[in-house]
Design brief:
single chain; about 325 residues; alpha/beta; TIM Barrel; eight-stranded parallel β-barrel; 15 helices; 8 strands; about 55% helix; about 10% strand; globular
Length: about 325
């Protein structure tokens, strides 16, 4: 078997793309999208009908142009999610506007709106993961949404403080950004490469995975944002990994034996101290990690730029 086939035997593989043909090709169990992936997909003629449907839906609202644009953006995200769910057997992640990253109430309202749009098209909320930034407000929004049966994927996760608070909030899934952690450390060290087994992003996921399994948290760990297959190989055994089409292709083309690197059965015997965080201790612990502070802020800005780019594209169609 190639490395991708072996990986699927020990880890649930998720496609990090909005392209339907790629999803069909690699047969992942879940898929995850974001505004930049949706924008890239909307540049292809085969997805024009999804845009036209969203615009028509927004215009029928009779709202102001700005309100129409918001409605269209939500509908477009859901249209892609509905189409993806015709291919993947389980779940799709749909992202809340990054501009709501510090707005708990706004994030909750947006999540309910997205779930409502899915349910109007006959899609159960069990099939959806709402993506929220792992700010304190995002994590608390996730806690409240989970009580309503709206399951959440906490993204832009870089610190142990974020991971612990997500677990204590009982969110469904977290997405530690492995590659972006690597980027920061390579820049700090002035090097071009760090081996997979020493990769700070990989080590971060190992630490989170073992912490969760040691203390019995139900939150799933999904490594994300990979830069190379070496990172993925060193996370074999993680609950889930969301992988870009390019890296899925590289794994599929590689032969050899894939060794499990993460095993929940081994976590129980590890010497790990359990920590409980409130808002003040979360903010302090997160602040103690300069990489996490920088990458979370940068990630929110970049996601926002992608949303604005997509809005401008839709605005031109209007």
């Amino acid at each position: 078997m190639n490395l991708l086939e072996q990986l699927k035997q020990m880890t649930e593989v998720v496609a990090d793309t909005g392209d339907f043909e790629t999803i069909r090709q690699y047969r992942p169990i879940d898929a995850t999208t974001n505004p930049s992936l949706i924008y890239a997909a909307t540049q292809k003629p085969e997805y024009v009908h999804l845009i036209e449907n969203a615009i028509s839906f927004g215009k029928k609202s009779g709202k102001s142009r700005q309100e129409q644009l918001t409605i269209i953006m939500d509908r477009l995200s859901v249209n892609f999610g509905v189409a993806i769910l015709k291919i993947v057997p389980r779940r799709v992640s749909t992202e809340v506007d990054a501009r709501l990253s510090f707005d708990m109430e706004g994030s909750i309202e947006k999540a309910r709106r997205l779930i409502g749009l899915y349910e109007e098209q006959g899609i159960s909320r069990e099939k959806i993961l709402i993506k929220l930034a792992s700010t304190w407000e995002g994590i608390m929004a996730g806690r409240e949404l989970e009580k309503e049966g709206i399951h959440c994927n906490l993204t832009l996760l870089f610190s142990m403080a974020q991971a612990i608070s997500c677990a204590e909030a009982g969110v469904q899934l977290i997405s530690p950004f492995v590659g972006r952690i690597l980027d920061w450390h390579k820049k700090q060290r002035g090097v071009d490469h760090i081996p997979g087994h020493e990769d700070p992003g990989v080590l971060s996921v190992h630490k989170i995975f073992n912490y969760y399994k040691k203390f019995g948290y139900r939150t799933e760990v999904m490594g994300a944002s990979f830069r190379n297959t070496e990172e993925i190989i060193n996370l074999a055994g993680c609950d889930l990994l969301t992988i870009s089409p390019q890296l899925l292709g590289e794994l599929e083309s590689q032969e050899g034996e894939l060794v499990r690197k993460l095993d929940a059965r081994l976590s129980a015997d590890m010497e790990i101290e359990q920590v409980h965080l409130d808002r003040k201790s979360f903010l302090w612990m997160h602040n103690e990690d300069p990489m996490a502070v920088e990458k979370l802020s940068e990630g929110i800005r970049r996601f926002t730029e992608d949303i604005i780019k997509l809005e401008r594209f839709i605005g031109r169609q209007l």
